[in-house]
UniProtKB/TrEMBL annotation:
Residues 1-31 form the signal peptide. This is Tat (Twin-arginine translocation) pathway signal sequence. InterPro entries: DUF1501, TAT_signal, TAT_signal_bac_arc. Transmembrane segments: none annotated. Coiled coil: none annotated. The lineage of its organism: Bacteria, Pseudomonadati, Pseudomonadota, Alphaproteobacteria, Rhodobacterales. PANTHER family: BLL7424 PROTEIN, DUF1501 DOMAIN-CONTAINING PROTEIN. Keywords: Signal. It comes from the Bacteria. It holds the Pfam family DUF1501.
Length: 406
């Protein structure tokens, strides 16, 4: 039963029901074993040079200026790279070997720098756009090589799911800001009407369970105005900075149980103008999300968890006239979790002199982003090199093992 059918049936029953607009779907999948993988897609093109400043490169200060390495500025990591100050709350993870970075990477996407094409290729895991984008995502294809996978629920409400997990393998989908607001009488009426149809009755029960699984109630005592007020409160909460934390908490709840793979996206990385302000905010949100996942998973689950944050492309090496950066090529990935061999930056550094830049404007990518994702899949779930290079990431050369995991 899809969202439209459910809404139509509910309206016919005289129920007050609404679904808040969905910005960030979150998808889950179960997999064998105890290892967990969380893939966060940073939509908009994160500026890797701004997040992880290679201040040890003599050309960096000419492009961006010398970074402030003081208490309020960048955090020196190894004498060459410095982490943006908005990620300072993650410094203990770095010191404990549970945070790392990958630099000078990208998907095979080049030249056109379109968000839509870049994100399509990132989530599909393909080699190029010439033959069209695959209809399924690379995480879903990876599931096809794992024995015993299943979905804890097969029900979706809200907008389309993450393309990275779309495909034939079973995946549960949930939105943290889709809620049902029904009176107890309306709920009982719906149950009575559908009780003679096992499929519809089961779907209705799943809908109620899913809507209340994040701590919000489904039944509302009072008038239609009371119900609409509850929904308005939920929409307001979605616009607040705590929305992403709520998403991370729910993801961790499922990952503590049978779920082993989660993927969701964070917006706000398109920094054409006033990058300092925008990047501060987006990185602070990402920091909150990672720390929430750590706190909620805690213990053995966190020790078996790998988080990877990736983006469709990097940004220009130079600032533009509006104190921002434009769409670029090479960028960075962020890795975190108890399973990560952190405290280091993985990079085949190309340099930032003008002749070392891609098209004399962007950080030159020196390794395929997909290779790092492939090694994570191999290490966490025991997938073969052939499966990774031929099916999950077509035309990929994995190359040497970067030793991302403990």
């Amino acid at each position: 039963m899809d969202r439209r059918s459910f809404l139509t049936r509910s309206a016919a029953l005289g129920c007050s029901l609404a679904a808040s607009p969905l910005l960030t779907p979150v998808s889950f999948a179960s997999a064998p074993g105890d290892n967990r993988l969380i893939v966060i897609v940073l939509r908009g093109g994160m500026d890797g040079l701004g997040v992880l400043a290679p201040y040890g490169d003599p050309a960096y200060s000419a492009l961006r200026g010398a970074p402030d390495l003081g208490a309020e500025g960048f955090v020196d990591l190894d004498g060459f790279f410095a982490m943006h100050g908005a990620l300072r709350p993650l410094a203990p993870l770095w010191q404990n070997g549970q945070l790392g970075f990958v630099h000078a990477v990208s998907t095979p996407y080049r030249d056109k720098r379109s968000h839509f094409d870049g994100q399509d290729l990132l989530e599909a895991g393909g080699a190029d756009l010439k033959s069209g984008v695959a209809r399924d995502g690379w995480l879903n294809r990876a599931m096809g090589h794992m024995p015993g996978q299943s979905a804890d629920l097969a029900y979706a409400i809200g907008s389309d799911a993450m393309a990275i997990l779309d495909g034939d393998m079973p995946v549960t989908r949930w939105s943290p800001d889709v809620d049902l607001a029904l009176s107890p009488q309306a709920i009982r009426l719906a149950q009575l009407v559908m009780e003679k149809d096992p499929a519809m009755s089961a779907a209705l029960a799943d809908a109620f369970q899913l809507a209340g699984s994040d701590g919000d109630g489904v039944a509302v005592q009072g008038t239609v105005d009371d119900m609409m007020a509850m929904l308005q409160d939920n929409m307001t909460a979605r616009r607040s900075s705590r929305y992403e934390v709520r998403l991370a908490k729910f993801a961790a709840q499922r990952l503590r149980k049978d779920v082993r793979i989660a993927s969701f996206s964070l917006n706000g990385w398109d920094t054409h103008a006033q990058q300092t302000r925008l990047l501060d905010r987006s990185l602070a949100t990402l920091s909150d999300v990672i720390l929430t996942l750590k706190e909620e998973l805690k213990g053995p689950a966190w020790q078996r968890t790998a988080i990877v944050a990736m983006t469709e492309f990097g940004r220009t090496a130079r600032f533009n006239g509006t104190k921002g950066t434009d769409h670029g090529t090479g960028g960075a990935m962020i890795l975190a979790g108890g399973a990560i061999r952190g405290g280091q930056v993985w990079a085949d550094w190309p340099g930032l002199s003008e002749d070392a830049l891609f098209q004399r404007r962007d950080l030159m990518p020196t390794r395929d982003l997909r290779a790092y994702s492939g090694w994570l899949l191999r290490g966490l779930f025991g997938l073969s090199s052939a499966a990774v290079q031929q099916d999950i990431f077509p035309q990929l050369e994995l190359g040497a093992d970067p030793q991302l995991l403990l």
